[in-house]
Amino acid sequence: MTDTLSIDRPGTPQPPVTLQRVRGRAAIVQAATGLRRLHQAGSAKILRPRTYGGPDQAVLINTAGGLTGGDRLDVSAEVDPGGALVVTSQTAERIYRSAGGAAQVRNRLTVGAGARLDWLPQETILFDGAALDRQLDVTLAGDARFLAAESFLFGRAAMGETIAKLALSDRWHIRRDGEPLYRDRLDLCLPRGGSDPLRDPAALAGHLGLGTVLMVTPDAEARTDGLRAAISGLEGLTSGVSGWDGKLLLRILARDGQALRRGLLAALGHVRDDPLPRVWHM
């Protein structure tokens, strides 16, 4: 047998390099009496820690350790009528520099009549050059109760990181009984022709953390003043609270990751009657 040695000369076309991509899919269905279905594939995993006295919990894990361009994660959580579930993540999600394309994340939540779902993932850290396309779709039935908290960190201040290039699209679509209830969209792109939304006084004004908390319950508006009081005076935070039509919305701009975490802990401690999942304190 003869081996042939091939020598590539300048100008010789080379086959494209195929990069390994992260693919993950996780789904959980919670009945009023406990777990009804659990599915996980690829890098997406779900842990169910033992809980005492509160709703069952589902802890999301991305075993890949982060996402970059071309990766995709799909998560779905459904709570049957009368059930309750808290969904969180084991740690912050990291979105690394993209070599092409955006990381895609699709989260789909369904909450039955009389049921409750708390969607409480920990922070998403965006590195320089990151590209993320994320969408949250929520379907509520009847008197379902829903709480969501999402947050971004633009680089890590302790490491001296700055963001010069970024492509971020984050969308929330929430419906109740088929009718639109709440829509939100955040689009940030850097560099951007003479303006820098991360440092522009009319945008993030140099803050490295951005957080959103949305509560949809019959008593949401009644918690408005208490929530303002809970987060007022916290160092390194700028915030705004609004309550209307059974919804309570909080926006947080934070100086750094520690200030962002303080604000989220204070806010969630006020609007929730149960302790936060233990992973939030690790």
From TrEMBL:
InterPro entries hit by this protein: UreD
What does it do? Required for maturation of urease via the functional incorporation of the urease nickel metallocenter.
The UniProt family comment states:
Belongs to the UreD family.
**Which PANTHER family does the annotation name?**
UREASE ACCESSORY PROTEIN D
Q: Which gene encodes it?
A: ureD
Q: How does it assemble?
A: UreD, UreF and UreG form a complex that acts as a GTP-hydrolysis-dependent molecular chaperone, activating the urease apoprotein by helping to assemble the nickel containing metallocenter of UreC. The UreE protein probably delivers the nickel.
Q: What is its main location?
A: cytoplasm
Its recorded name reads: Urease accessory protein UreD
Its keywords, alphabetically, are: Chaperone, Cytoplasm, Nickel insertion
Where is this protein found? Cytoplasm
One Pfam family it belongs to? UreD
Q: What are the annotated GO cellular component locations?
A: cytoplasm
Which GO molecular function annotation, any one, does this entry have?
A: nickel cation binding
